[in-house]
Amino acid sequence: MLTGNTAIVTGGSRGIGRAIALEFARAGADVALLYASSEAAAQAVVEECLAIGVRAAAYRCDVADFSACKEAVAAVKADFGKVDILVNNAGITRDGLIATMKEADFADVLDTNLRGAFHMIRHCTPLFIRARRGKIINISSVSGLLGNAGQANYSASKAGLIGLTKATARELAARNVTCNAVAPGFIQTDMTQDLDTGANPLATNIPLGRLGTAEDVAKTVLFLASSHADYITGEVIRVDGGMAM
Ligand code: NDP
After folding, report:
1. pLDDT for the residue 197
2. Using CA positions, which residue lies closest to atom 46 of ligand 1?
3. Is the whole-model pTM more than 0.85?
4. For position 123, which CATH number holds?
């Protein structure tokens, strides 16, 4: 399905990003993972991809750092020869109520979740334009669609990603580059393990009756990265068990 493609997955060391990397590898793509600090976890994902039979490598890169993203994209291009797919998955939370939220907690979440995606799109776009092809998938959230109390920073960053997705889709469509977003609901990962989902009004009403898995999200990302989605751009696909419909 993706044989011959090289994919960059940010935040590929854990959770949803790890599942996307493995799903891509099983579909035949070579995979470049970016991670912030979990070197051992990132290397373990690389080993799993290599065992599947594709090329894989991990790069330490804080996506909030414009220059670091430029260097990482250049390193992937040097190592793999090209980039065909970019998945902006790296994300953080710094939850708190607006009345007491620290300035840094708002800024850090926007810097990683929204500016980080811009940085990666900015540095991959020249490669996509030259190749006259490319697929960008941004991992947003139902928090960006609905807003979530206690997550003003996170919800703003994820709503911002949807605007970034649509503007990018319009701007790059003529170059045969698509840009779509996936909006997961509550997915079982490190990010949500401390959340009391039973007490969260968003999580208590999931029509499909369960939290999502990282693989649920990864399969949708694989679809958007594949030729099955060649005529889809600027779209936001919820993977939330029906929670936000
Ligand atoms: P995890 O906390 O499990 O993993 C986060 C990943 O992002 C890690 O690989 C981490 O790297 C990486 N990362 C964090 N900050 C940076 C940074 N500054 N630069 C580079 N990499 C970074 O998160 P999930 O897998 O749960 O979430 C993945 C994405 O999905 C996020 O964007 C999240 O907002 C979104 N999402 C998650 C939902 C959920 O319910 N889990 C719901 C909706 C959206 P390292 O391991 O090195 O720290």
Report:
1. 67
2. 38
3. yes
4. 3.40.50.720
